[in-house]
Amino acid sequence: MKKIAGFFIIALAALSIGVAYAAQDLPMPPPAIILFDAQADPVSLQQVEAGATEMMLAWHVINVRPGDRLRLEMYRGRSWVALTEANEVLPAVAARAVTITHPMNFGPPTYRLSIVDAAGAVIDERTVVIPYGARPPENPPEIVSFATRAAGIDATALRGGAAWIPVTWEVINRRPTANLVFEQIHDDGSATSVELPRESYWVASAGEGIVAPFAAAPTDQVVIRLQVVDVITGEVFDTAEITLAVTGNLAGAPVLTATPLPGAATQTGAGPTVVSFTAAPQTVQPGGEVLLQWETRSAQRVWIEQFKADTVGAGFTQYTPADHLYADLPLTGSLKVTLPGDYTGKVATFILVMDTYNVSARGPGARVDVPVVCQGEFFFAGGTGCPAGPVTEVAGAYQAFETGHMLWRSDTGQVYVHYSNGTAAYYSQSDLDAMADNPVADAAPPGQYKPINAFGRVWGNSAEVKVRLGWAVTPEQGYTMQIQTALQAAPAAHDYLTLPDGQIIGTGAGQWEFK
């Protein structure tokens, strides 16, 4: 801890400098990051992916003014992700233990400390990189498992590009420049990618996902190949394959057919039997509806459990607590299930259970997985959930205050009040219509401004807003605002908005943050 001890010596010295400025009544210099450092040894890729290694981040910032705040972030995927709670206020001098997690890209773990002012503008920032060890693992990368729960592939779905196959994998001895590649091997020996679109090219060393094979001509089997490849040299370290039989030529609406659970009866007359258990459509988006249909024989009672497959995973057991349970169902019937608008799982899993259901045992049954896919994309990396629609552009207005800012959007007339501590308030057009023009008669202090128009109505008629925001520090500024709303269950609807400088914020349910 020598490095951190030295850091606190610097902290005390810098504090004395601030006292000197105050004693001489001199203007305080602007905020600055004096030190941002990490005490961490080089780590291996395996340690980072395991997420079990801690390091100590330490920083010292001087001349922090009212309204300024610190942001501590990690670079993940293609954007910076906050390492603090929305309302957390970081001290100017501190040291914090942080678990090193994988950045989901090909770079080493990278952290950033920023100073931002009340308007959200960055005043100063510093980054720290935790390097990977110089020596790669002694043994080459190896695929230790590559499997699927699917028993086969329907020919109609395959030719229509709707055959989504869940797969699991695990790779050991991974190197930072290696990646996992999923391909379909065709009858002529050629290969095509079966990977679905994703934000990051990086694939984790162990996980569960979906591949999408396709066949333009009839075929009796599909071969899915996993390779570990060095993305710089092209060297193939290891290869594994899954072969699935192509069956049937089913017509009608696409459905997903259930996979029997281990131990389930499969022959009529051998106890309770699941004759069929299907889900349609083949994919669903958050807020969408899934139609479940089933037929059983020799069963006495039927239940259906609903899970997020992200939490069930490949190691599902019959005793995992369900996220939702549908009880006392008919022995043969159908059920419409609507996913929440803020559903965050990538797969919705439904388990049909017959006859026995209690805390210690569940009877035989079947399972069906429905991939959850957003219809559309956010206009930036880092949105939560799925977009409710495409990004739109509207006339907007922005004004910075001593401890926050206000936004106005022309399409709805709504005013967003964002305080510097991360909390927010919202005023609709009908709220504004009920308010008088700014009734505050006092003139603004020198160098500050009294808000007008919609901002003036909210500020002048709400004592809380006026006290918490303080006076405006810039004139009101008009600009073209980009807006996109996330598909979430009320009242937690989340709007993503751009500021005049191009920064993106997320706001909803009384909270806001920079994205």
Question: What report would you give on this structure?
Answer:
The protein is mainly β and 515 residues long. The protein has helices spanning 2-23, 45-50, 155-159, 309-312, 429-433, 453-461, 463-469; strands spanning 32-39, 53-62, 69-76, 79-82, 93-100, 110-116, 122-129, 142-148, 153-154, 165-172, 178-185, 191-193, 206-211, 221-230, 236-247, 256-257, 259-260, 273-280, 289-297, 302-308, 324-329, 332-338, 347-354, 365-371, 386-387, 392-401, 404-409, 415-419, 424-427, 477-487, 494-498, 504-508, 511-514. It has 7 helices and 33 strands. Strands 25, 26, 27, 28, 29, 30, 31, 32 and 33 form a 9-stranded antiparallel beta sheet that branches. A 5-stranded mixed beta sheet has the order 9-15-14-11-12. A 5-stranded antiparallel beta sheet has the order 17-24-23-20-21. Strand 26 (392-401) and strand 27 (404-409) form a beta hairpin. The two termini are 33 Å apart. Mean pLDDT is 82; it is low at 1-19, 250-254, 263-269 and 313-319.
Question: Quick gist of this model?
Answer:
Helices cover 11% and strands 42% of the residues.
For the structure shown, list the relevant keywords:
515 residues; mainly beta; nine-stranded antiparallel sheet; 7 helices; 11% helix
Topology of helices and strands:
Blueprint: H1 2-23, E1 32-39, H2 45-50, E2 53-62, E3 69-76, E4 79-82, E5 93-100, E6 110-116, E7 122-129, E8 142-148, E9 153-154, H3 155-159, E10 165-172, E11 178-185, E12 191-193, E13 206-211, E14 221-230, E15 236-247, E16 256-257, E17 259-260, E18 273-280, E19 289-297, E20 302-308, H4 309-312, E21 324-329, E22 332-338, E23 347-354, E24 365-371, E25 386-387, E26 392-401, E27 404-409, E28 415-419, E29 424-427, H5 429-433, H6 453-461, H7 463-469, E30 477-487, E31 494-498, E32 504-508, E33 511-514
Parallel strand pairs: 9-15
Antiparallel strand pairs: 1-2, 2-5, 3-4, 3-6, 6-7, 8-10, 10-13, 11-12, 11-14, 14-15, 16-18, 17-24, 18-19, 19-22, 20-21, 20-23, 23-24, 25-30, 26-27, 26-30, 27-28, 28-29, 30-31, 31-32, 32-33
